[in-house]
Design goal:
- It is a single chain.
- With about 260 residues, the protein is an alpha/beta fold.
- The chain is built from eight helices and seven strands.
- It has helices at about 20-30, 40-55, 70-80, 105-130, 150-170, 190-205, 205-215, 225-235, and strands at about 10, 35-40, 60-65, 85-90, 135-140, 175-185, 250.
- The protein has a seven-stranded parallel beta sheet, sandwiched between helices.
- Helix 4 runs parallel beside helix 5.
- The two termini are about 30 Å apart.
Amino acid sequence: MDLGIKGKTALVCASSKGLGRGCAEALAEAGVHLVLNARGAEALEATAADIRAKWGVNVTAVAADITTDAGRDRVLAATGGKADILVTNAGGPPPGLWSDWTRDDFIKALDANMLTPIALMQALLPGMIAQGWGRVVNITSQSVKSPIPALGLSNAARTGLTGFVAGTARQVAPNGVTINNLLPGIHATDRAISLDGGVAKAQGISVDEARVRREATIPVRRYGTAAEFGAACAFLCSQHAGFIVGQNILLDGGAGNATI
């Protein structure tokens, strides 16, 4: 399918690996030029070079912490303050117990997983509105619909972002701009390795056994891939998705047991 977005420009955050890279790859395959961001310069430059060679699109790599004012300023400067597509993404806060978290822990989680995406939207939505077209996809979590007890920091911050998007998406839709959220379940990424490692340590089992047990709770009996996640993201960014507004779309292999 031709997504109809060849030649457009996208800012994709946390895109040196994992789900962010999956989104960047899928957009590049559709002919979209990219501004990629991640904290680690070496991995980011390697990803940028690979995508350039594979898809022949322009790729600008900006190594910076997108959750800081200075980092966002550097990344936004690389876009010239304008992008047709924005994919927000940031690593999730660590798991833990409700009684362990301090105010500083919550502020850090809110900065990364709620306030940073909001700041990026506030910076780039005016340009999208002015040109009468734009796409925003926020990578959040399945925990927005089905809270994960050990991920209370993530549950709180990402749900806050979801509330902001719910209202904002309806305000900008008349201008040809859509905002939607993608809610990943467990995918075969470094985040999965980290979570499985925590389970393995707590239960005294191997990481492989922890993964096997988690896979058994997913109807498709496997973890998702970055490539299939990226394909879903690219479709939401396409010309064909203009009637999808303010939605929270689960990509969890059916793990969330709900009718609606």
